[in-house]
Amino acid sequence: MKKLLSIAALLLVSAAIFAQAGKRPVIGISSTWGEGTSTSAPLTYVESVIRAGGVPLVLPITLDPAIMAQMLDRVDGLIMTGGEDIDPLKWFGEEPVPGMGEIVPARDSFDIALIRMAVGRGMPLLGICRGHQLLNVAFGGTLYQDIPSQVKGSSVKHSQKAPRYYGTHTINIEKGSLLNKQIGLEKVAVNSYHHQAVKDVAPGFKVTARSVDGIVEAMEKIGSTKVFSVQFHPEGFTASNIDTFLGIFQHLVKEAGKK
């Protein structure tokens, strides 16, 4: 009888291990704010997570910290998506310049709180475009509110008129950085849809890629393989079955699977 019970216990443990091994990491995707009437995320992020082996879960905007915490309880990693400008007065103490665009205060508050919670938990996090800028601001960095009017000598068009799967300018990537390891390149053409950019880098982070006019195109948290960001939109390529930047999402999913 004892032998049968031991075998049964072993089978249960084995089943649990196999079930866990076959479980895909869940990646939370931050959402947009549709004038207070909707909250959603572009399918390009969803499709990129799926292609990388993860399960996408769009996180609706809320200002309740308890709900945010429970959202993070249910995911293994996080993508902070692109979108509107970030309120400079509230988040890094600067008056808005004339070239600054639309801001969404509720989204700023949600995104920054979510980033701080996730990083505080040691959760894998990828920031993309606005998400890249938010990661910097959340930990004490600042932004150029408007590249054309604030960055002297900028020689690159950072807001392209071309498909999202098409690269229009190059970036130089630091050898040995997370981005370099993820895509295996030190120079690559990227897409570009922004007019704000990282200015003063937050303490604890380092720049790992720049455009030819010096704009910060990638960052990572010093001493961590879990927290990193890019200014361009890798999901535009990945969702179109172009694998140049698939490794970015695969790295996030892999790190999330270690939870």
Structure description:
This protein is of the alpha/beta class and 259 residues long. It has a single domain, classed as Rossmann fold, CATH 3.40.50.880. The protein is 36% helix and 19% strand. It is built from 10 helices and 11 strands. The strands form 2 sheets. The chain has a 9-stranded mixed β-sheet with strand order 2-1-3-4-11-10-9-6-7, with helices on both faces. The protein has a two-stranded antiparallel sheet with strand order 5-8. Strand 1, helix 2 and strand 2 form a beta-alpha-beta unit. Helix 3 packs across helix 5 and helix 5 crosses helix 6. The longest helix is centred in the first third of the chain and has 20 residues. The two termini are 37 Å apart. 42% of the residues are buried.
Strand coverage percent: 15-25%
Structural classification:
alpha/beta
**Percent helix range:** 25-40%
Report the radius of gyration as a whole number of Å.
Answer: 20 Å
For the biggest β-sheet, the strand order reads 2-1-3-4-11-10-9-6-7
Ends apart, CA distance between termini: 37 Å
CATH architecture designation: 3-Layer(aba) Sandwich
Quaternary state of this entry equals: single chain
As for the CATH topology, it is: Rossmann fold
Low-confidence blocks of residues = 1-21
Structural shape: globular
Task: Name the CATH superfamily assignment.
Answer: Class I glutamine amidotransferase (GATase) domain
Number of strands: 11
Overall number of structural domains: 1
Topology diagram in text:
Layout: H1 2-21, E1 26-30, H2 43-51, E2 55-59, H3 65-73, E3 77-80, H4 88-92, H5 105-120, E4 125-128, H6 130-138, E5 143-144, H7 147-150, E6 169-173, H8 178-183, E7 187-190, E8 197-198, E9 205-211, E10 216-221, E11 227-230, H9 234-238, H10 246-256
Parallel strand pairs: 1-2, 1-3, 3-4, 4-11
Antiparallel strand pairs: 5-8, 6-7, 6-9, 9-10, 10-11
